[in-house]
């Protein structure tokens, strides 16, 4: 497997609005889970996947994150791409990509734990000569997420609205991307989902690989508590 991609962007600028009643006025990645901030578990995951450099895309109260994690955590070098104003997921990725040294990197949501092997996603990305590859999560009986239509080659054909589904593939919140993917994108503040991914579905540029590994999005109090129970 390709070990060449050793940098990861973590979107850690979330306000945690839905979790406010549970965690208070702290950045969502710092939500406490069994005496550790949630971000600690993401760093453990990155270390397990041989990531050497993490670029944290931060904004809201980012100094609190820096105070805990500093410039090196678990042997991983940390860089901070600081948003002076909220830029959205797309703007946050675009800003952080300027700090990436290699030709490609991984991107992770700072409020989601998806236990895939990153190198497998990277191998797939390169084998398909993709520009932007998404890790899809196969799910059953859900209504909280929109779904993705994918052809046999892994090309993303469409993104569908949230609705009750017996089964489907959702966006798992982990990407493998080329460094220059957003270089010519004119917007500064934008959503990677609605402003980039959805308009490019069906044009052959976007790929997806489906995984069945453990997945938990701590965006709601229920899933946050479940993640805590899963990591006792």
List keywords for this structure.
globular; single chain; Spore Coat Polysaccharide Biosynthesis Protein SpsA, Chain A; alpha/beta; two-stranded antiparallel ribbon; 14 strands; 232 residues; eight-stranded mixed beta sheet; 7 helices
CATH topology: Spore Coat Polysaccharide Biosynthesis Protein SpsA, Chain A
Largest sheet: 8 strands, mixed
Number of helices: 7
Computed CA radius of gyration, to the nearest angstrom: 17 Å
CATH 4th-level superfamily: Spore Coat Polysaccharide Biosynthesis Protein SpsA, Chain A
Number of strands: 14
* Shape label: globular
The whole-number mean of residue pLDDT values reads 91
Which CATH class is shown? Answer: Alpha Beta
Order of helices and strands: EHEEHEHEEHEEHEEEEHEEH
Low-pLDDT ranges: none
Rounded to the nearest angstrom, the distance between the terminal CA atoms is 32 Å
SSE-based structural type: alpha/beta
Name given to the CATH architecture: Alpha-Beta Complex
The share of residues in helices is: 25-40%
Beta-strand portion reads: 25-35%
**What's the number of domains?**
1
Describe the protein's architecture and organization.
With 232 residues, this protein is an alpha/beta fold. It has a single domain (7-132, 174-206, 219-230), classed as Spore Coat Polysaccharide Biosynthesis Protein SpsA, Chain A (Alpha-Beta Complex). The chain is 27% helix and 33% strand. The protein is built from seven helices and 14 strands. It has helices at 20-23, 38-48, 62-69, 88-97, 118-127, 192-200, 221-230; strands spanning 7-11, 32-33, 36-37, 53-58, 72-73, 76-82, 104-109, 112-114, 132-142, 147-150, 156-160, 165-178, 206-211, 215-217. The strands form four sheets. It has an eight-stranded mixed β-sheet, sandwiched between helices. Strands 2-3 form a two-stranded antiparallel ribbon. Strands 8-14 form a two-stranded antiparallel ribbon. Helix 4 (88-97) packs across helix 6 (192-200). The longest helix is centred in the N-terminal third of the chain and has 11 residues, at 38-48. The protein is globular. The two termini are 32 Å apart. The model has no long low-confidence stretch (mean pLDDT 91).
């Amino acid at each position: 497997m390709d070990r060449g991609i050793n940098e990861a962007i973590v979107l850690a600028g979330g306000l945690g609005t839905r979790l406010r009643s549970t965690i208070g006025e702290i950045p969502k990645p710092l939500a406490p889970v069994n005496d550790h901030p949630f971000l600690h578990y993401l760093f453990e995951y990155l270390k397990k996947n041989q990531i050497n450099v993490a670029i944290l895309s931060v904004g809201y109260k980012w100094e609190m994150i820096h105070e805990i994690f500093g410039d090196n955590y678990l042997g991983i070098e940390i860089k901070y791409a600081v948003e002076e104003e909220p830029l959205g997921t797309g703007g946050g990725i675009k800003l952080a990509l300027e700090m990436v040294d290699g030709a490609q990197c991984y991107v992770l949501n700072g409020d989601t734990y998806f236990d895939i092997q990153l190198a497998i996603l990277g191998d797939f990305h390169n084998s398909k000569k993709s520009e932007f590859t998404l890790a899809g999560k196969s799910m059953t009986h859900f209504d909280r997420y929109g779904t993705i239509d994918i052809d046999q080659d892994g090309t993303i054909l469409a993104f569908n609205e949230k609705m009750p589904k017996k089964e489907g593939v959702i966006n798992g919140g982990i990407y493998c991307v080329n460094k220059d993917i957003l270089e010519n994108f004119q917007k500064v503040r934008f959503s990677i989902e609605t402003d980039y991914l959805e308009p490019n579905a069906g044009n052959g540029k976007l790929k997806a690989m489906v995984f069945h590994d453990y997945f938990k999005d701590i965006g709601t109090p229920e899933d946050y508590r479940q993640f805590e129970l899963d990591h006792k």
